[in-house]
């Protein structure tokens, strides 16, 4: 009897209960370790903020300004670009095209190395930028110090972010969790030594975060070296020279840039909310409450983000294997899980709305403001969870541009006008900002669910995946390196197996 995992099933049949359960097991065996990893990364950020708080209010304010600036201008961009690997790597792994899988990793690292050049220039000039827009000079000077000492983290992330996608696309998730756990375990004592014992202050907090990420990279690379070569469940092959790597960067960018925009457009909107809160009648209370609420949404986002990344890998793997209806089942199961997660978030935000803010502040006015808005945040998550998962599905089918367009329209042409109109036009105030977020999440969720559930032709997506993963990379690489006299034919690194197309035609 053949293994049912290796078989697709007919479009005319409803998946059986056992098939649904099997998909749940596959999906959550990936999601739980990735969620744990995301939590560890979140804890690392909290530890950094706590140590900044121990240094003083000025250091805390400067560190917070720097963290916000670096998230907007740097980390969101690197994470977004790296997510462009998801469709290529997951589909290549599903079709056992190891050359495309590994070559794409090399190309993404090269893309990120170029991307960090303008980002570095922005970080170096943070102080002059912030003073130009009217920020306090003392806070800005502290933020600039934190940012300068965080510069090496850009180089670290050019390896860290692609490696995470590369391993996840091969359903290798537990090692990433353990690597993160080991790195974060040393984060607290490292902060203590650098900040408290050595008295390095804000630079010490920044350096501790850089070293933590560096440790993650070293551990992941060590794991790849130990288990690489395909013999230990991880595929790692380096076949092409620098010419072969560079010649396929353009097509990969066509996937990476929309993926980046889709993620950044949503991340940036939360920062815009903080700015808008500063223009309300009592900006101190509003900004303080906004900070608590954004930390809360970041905490809740760890699970949907993991689910989105894993369903992207599952959908891509099945499409690459030529199993469109198993890919459809993976997408459907993930969306159902997302709705359940959203309902859980609505429930606890309603039940704990009067107590939650006490974990962050003793100010009764801030507590009341958070309590009034927390149920709205829960309703936002009811839309955000399936929306985030749907974006992951779109990336798995190599259609991130659709997600980017939906995020642009929902957050900036629906959410922003509603937030501004309610908060300032109708004088609803603080809660009006979050009703704007709710309207954006509803518009986004409805649009993405329509695309995924109604407009997706899974057989056509499987055919596109077959075209993408049938590219004869190793043959092209050998021609490129050994037969330079072949000219233009050798330069076309990613030629289709029948000689009629290339990666640009597929993407």
Automatic annotation (TrEMBL):
Molecular function GO labels: antiporter activity; xenobiotic transmembrane transporter activity
UniProt cross-references to InterPro entries, sorted A to Z: MATE_euk, MATE_fam
GO cellular component: membrane
Bias type Low complexity, positions: 493-507
Localization, UniProt: Membrane
One Pfam entry name: MatE
UniProt keyword terms in alphabetical order: Membrane, Transmembrane, Transmembrane helix, Transport
GO biological process, one term: xenobiotic detoxification by transmembrane export across the plasma membrane
Sequence intervals crossing the membrane: 27-52, 64-85, 105-126, 175-194, 206-226, 329-353, 365-385, 406-426, 432-454
Keyword 4Fe-4S: no
Residues covered by region (Disordered): 481-507
Signal peptide range: none
UniProt KW Transport keyword: yes
Membrane topology: Multi-pass membrane protein
Protein family (similarity comment): Belongs to the multi antimicrobial extrusion (MATE) (TC 2.A.66.1) family.
Name this protein carries in UniProt: Protein DETOXIFICATION
Lineage: Eukaryota, Viridiplantae, Streptophyta, Embryophyta, Tracheophyta
